[in-house]
Amino acid sequence: MSVARAPAGAADAQRSYLSGTFAELCRIESPSGSERACAQRVIAELRALDVHAHEDAAGAVVGSDCGNLLARVPAAGASGTGGAQRRSLMLCAHLDTVALQARVEPVLSDGVWVNANEGILGADNKAAIAVLLALARHVCREGAPLDLELLFTVAEERSLAGARAFDAARLQSDFGYVFDHASPIGEVVAASACNYRFEVSVHGRAAHAGIRPQDGRSAIVCAARAVASLPVGRVGEHSSVNVGVIAGGSATNVVADSAVFRGEVRSLEEHDAEALTAEVVQRCHEAANLPDCDCDVDVSIERTYAGYRQPASSRAVAVAEAALRRCGHEPVRITSGGGSDANALLDAGFPCVNLANGTEHAHEPGERVSDAALHEMLGVALALLDEAAQAPSPPR
Fold first, then answer.
1. Which end is more exposed in the chain, N or C (fewer Cβ atoms within 10 Å of the end residue's Cβ)?
2. CATH ID of 8-192+307-390, from 3.40.630.10, 3.60.21.10, 3.30.465.10, 3.10.20.30
3. In terms of pTM, does the model score above 0.85?
4. Pairing outcome for strands 258-267 and 194-203
5. Helix 8-27 to helix 371-390 angle, to the nearest 10 degrees?
6. Residue 98 CB contacts under 8 Å (≥ 6 apart), including other chains
7. In this predicted model, what pLDDT tens digit does every residue of 197-218 receive, in sequence order?
8. CA 138 to CA 134: how far, in whole Å?
């Protein structure tokens, strides 16, 4: 069977549900670490469909007030034949957002959802959550050709921490999809960067800034010299370096004896990421040894997630491209410097693909998504179910 499309009246109700659910989800503040309220809304929506969402223990591991949620929506009337394992498709979205700059009040302006206040909208990734809930509602009412697994992760904006803590062996699907790339619908992320995070702690010597400044060693000056020496921004064709957090000192009349800055290195090539990370370490030590710095530095490095390149033979990519064409979108394979839960799931051995969801300006005050894109992504999700059901099963 194929996923039944709703008749005209039901289609209007479906559109209303999707748009309304998206707006309500955006109003629920869920920065990384505080996903519980958003998770409770997801659980309630699924419970109304008689679908249970199981929460794992990832919250305690990643520093969140909530764990990852996994729900299974059975295909209507499918109970398996002769003991055969029922097939399913996994779809994933994350519950958290980056830090809020202002209260979120979603408004629809000329067909586009934006935040009425000067801050993020939360379309990353509330747009995907709303689509998955609307899909579950549709499948429960109209049926589907296979089971549906829905994974809602926490702490994605903290280097995919929730997905990295998730036990991918729990998934029963052959493959799955993540709807988490802020670019036009039709783009398929065929390659994604690896990520290294660094934290640099600088230790100087405190002194009175007005009486004995010459006796001090400013950790802030040293940190500034180090940051200024780094190759920040786009580096070559496939790499980037960013310093995103810096802090230090205690008062304006004290030569700062401590400072810290944190950043990251990304690259589509693992060896380039390693080389750039090594360069960060070297330049920080060089800055510390400058005559007007003379500080100590401690540099810690963490490889947070692996990059990937989808193989040309990927069944998941082929199914995605067929589904996109069915919906009138010409697939375009892209490379991305951004990471998603797909990086973590692939690294854990579960085949999945990250798909663009039509959102724009993620992590920015001007974040937006058109109402049309929300409904187009629901159409893509429905088509994915149909195409995945028609794809041959892998040998077991």
1. C
2. 3.40.630.10
3. yes
4. antiparallel
5. 110
6. 31, 32, 120, 124, 157, 363
7. 999 999 999 999 999 999 999 9
8. 6
